[in-house]
Write a structure and sequence with these properties.
Elements lengths: L11 E8 L21 H6 L9 E10 L6 H15 L6 E5 L5 H11 L6 E4 L12 H12 L9 E5 L2 E4 L3 E3 L8 E3 L6 E4 L2 E4 L24 E5 L7 H9 L3 E6 L7 H12 L3 E6 L14 H4 L2 E2 L5 H12 L5 H10 L1
Parallel strand pairs: 1-2, 1-3, 3-4, 4-5, 11-12, 12-13, 13-14
Antiparallel strand pairs: 5-6, 6-9, 7-8, 9-10
Helix pairs in contact: 3-8, 5-6
């Protein structure tokens, strides 16, 4: 009697689409401009049939927007759906298609609020789907290749783009149009991905996902936190205006080591005395903003952002404020995450 050969079940990957350039279309292939979020998740999946060799792939449309208009409502919807899906045995990994403008922010937000060690991968593209040499299909294929890799578990939320794998905490967009735009702030990529063949280098050292204390599954809103940009001769007007507008937190995109004019620093100190939590970050591309180096944080009641750039510091502060308003406790979050 002939033996029955049972095919090994493929991993199950859910693609959650939010729009962006990867789903964008030009009026013609010679146009630089395009409309983000033109194509649906079904269009994206059908454009890369080779993904089905790697996994059982299915999709959901969470949003269909350019990521410059990403907002708290979509973040919360996305995070809640990811946690729902990963809590079941029917999903082994998640791939999120996303515009590149705010991809680093969404990646870090999810890195803090996803409550699973299963892989979550963000992919996007610098060229729209209709471009002469679109980069989206390979990025999507490689993203699925990372999502099904057992070695990807426990590495936090990742960004896979241009054949590289980045930690969602560290990565930032560094060029307006180049396909090599994404790079980490202070560390190297955590791996390489090419045609679903992955090479891994390191695991994130700080807390994330399953070990994070931040949860938004019951949240309907996020605290308001704004960013103030520093420059020569900057006045304190914007700081005062944000306090008057009801900001719960303010992040300084400072010069150098998280510094600013005397007027801005005085405004931030006054804001802290009124209960607004203030974090000093820097507009410089890399480095660490440490406590009490150029600014006396202890005296002024401010928090140092450590490695986080202003946009990521804003996200950690938003989530931190849902747990505590104590500057000492919030400073600990910046050491831990």
């Amino acid at each position: 009697m002939a033996s029955v050969v049972v095919a090994e079940a493929k991993p199950k990957v859910k693609i959650l689409a939010t729009g962006g350039t990867i789903a964008g279309a030009q009026a013609s292939t010679s146009d630089a401009g395009y409309k983000s979020g033109t194509f649906s998740v079904e269009n994206l999946i059908s454009a890369v049939p080779a993904m089905k060799e790697l996994a059982e792939v299915s999709g959901e449309q969470i949003a269909n927007i350019g990521s410059q208009t990403m907002n708290d409502a979509v973040w919360l919807k996305l995070a809640k759906r990811i946690n729902q899906l990963l809590a079941t045995p029917d999903v082994d990994g998640i791939v999120v298609t996303h515009g590149t403008d705010t991809m680093e922010e969404t990646a870090y937000f999810l890195n803090l609020v996803v409550s699973s060690d299963k892989p979550v991968v963000l992919v996007g593209s610098m060229r729209p789907a209709t471009a002469i040499s679109a980069d989206g299909p390979l990025n999507l294929f490689n993203g699925v290749g990372v999502a099904v890799d057992p070695d990807a578990r426990g590495r936090g939320v990742m960004v896979v783009i241009n054949d590289q794998i980045f930690s969602g905490r560290d990565v930032t967009k560094s060029h307006t149009t180049s396909v090599e735009t994404f790079r980490p702030l202070n560390h190297g990529p955590i791996g390489d991905a090419y045609l679903a063949k992955n090479r891994w280098y390191e695991r994130p050292a700080l807390k994330h996902t399953l070990n994070s204390e931040f949860r938004v599954d019951k949240a309907d809103t996020l605290p308001r936190v704004d960013i103030v940009y520093s420059y020569a001769n900057a006045p304190r007007d914007l700081v005062d205006a944000l306090v008057a507008a009801g900001a719960k937190g303010i992040v300084l995109a400072g010069v150098g080591d998280g510094n600013s004019t005397d007027e801005v620093i005085a405004g931030l100190s006054d804001a802290a005395k009124k209960g607004v939590v203030v974090v000093r970050s820097t507009k410089v591309g890399s480095g660490i903003v440490r406590r009490n180096v150029e600014v006396n944080d202890d005296k002024l009641g401010l928090i140092a952002a450590e490695e986080l750039n202003p946009s990521k510091a804003r996200i950690l502060l938003m989530l931190g404020l849902m747990n505590s308003s104590d500057p000492k406790k919030l400073q600990e979050f910046f050491y831990q995450y």
